[in-house]
Amino acid sequence: SPPGPRGGFYQSGIPGGPVTSCWYYRDAFCQPPDATRFEDNLVEWTEALNNPRVLPPERKRDSGAVCGAEFAPGATSKNQAADNLVASHALVLDVDCWRDEEHPERPEPFTLDDIRQRLGDWRFVAWNTFNSTAAKRRWRVVIPLATPMPPSKYRALWHRINHVLGDTMSESTSDPGRLGFVGTVASDEGQRDDEWYIHDALRLVWD
Fold first, then answer.
1. Mean pLDDT of 9-22
2. Would residue 3 be called left, alpha or beta, if left means φ above 0 and alpha means ψ between -120 and 50 degrees?
3. Contact partners, residue 158, CB within 8 Å, separation at least 6
4. How far apart are CA 114 and CA 117, in angstroms?
5. What is the residue-wise DSSP string for the chain?
6. C-alpha–C-alpha distance, residues 71 and 85, integer Å
7. Are 188 and 54 spatial neighbours (Cβ–Cβ below 8 Å)?
């Protein structure tokens, strides 16, 4: 069973500061006009993460997804051009590049304790990805930001966090409009062994 919901309700990491949020897409093909606001609170995350359903691998893109990118009013696509993606509200991270023959310097697959040790200064939410297994955990991690951030600063912050995580993320996943699939797994075993966690701390101040 998963470690269960832990955390609190955060509308902003800075009292009186701009409210940050995420957006929920019903699947990978959904576009901004159909996305719904997803607030960083215990109720929203518990509903999204608890009891994931099993989908066949070929239907992975039918999974719902969380995104930290705010697109311009009237945007009809997730194009990441400067005039279409206007702010980043959260980092959406793929933590799954583990030690192998080509990369002996990388860590072994992280446990939840490993992630807590590395990211414990900030609020974060972590869950197993669609293809994660008990033997080789693959993590999706969302780090909500204290205030909205210009998308042009996203990759520099991504690299900073990647260093904290032992360079366990691929450069190909560093885009600010990244989707984090949520609520589905690829097998009954994945459902049985699923883990997720909400870490209660202040949001990351990016500037």
1. 54
2. alpha
3. 91, 93, 169, 174
4. 5
5. ----------S-SSTTSPP--EEEESSTT--GGG-EEE-SSHHHHHHHHSSPEE--GGGGGGSEEEE-EEEPTT--S----TTTEEEEEEEEEEE-----SS-TTSPPPPPHHHHHHHHTTS-EEEEE-TT--SSS--EEEEEEEEEEE-GGGHHHHHHHHHHHTTS-S-GGG--TT-EEEESEESSHHHHHT--EEEE-SPPB---
6. 4
7. yes
CA distance 93 to 170: 10
For residue 142, pLDDT over 80 is answered with yes
Dig out the tokens for 37 from the structure. Answer: 């606001």
**Amino acid code (one letter) for 157:** L
Q: What is the pLDDT of residues 16-60, one digit of tens each?
A: 455 678 999 999 999 999 999 998 999 999 999 999 999 999 999
Check whether 127 has a pLDDT greater than 80.
Answer: yes
Answer whether residue 15 shows pLDDT above 80.
no
Residue 126 buriedness (CB in 10 A; 0-12 / 13-18 / 19+): buried
**98, exposed or middle or buried, with CB in 10 Å at 0-12, 13-18, 19+?**
middle
In 3D space, the residue among 118, 104, 95 whose CA is nearest the CA of residue 195 turns out to be 95
Hey, what are 38's tokens?
A: 């997803």
Q: What is the mean pLDDT of residues 130-139?
A: 94
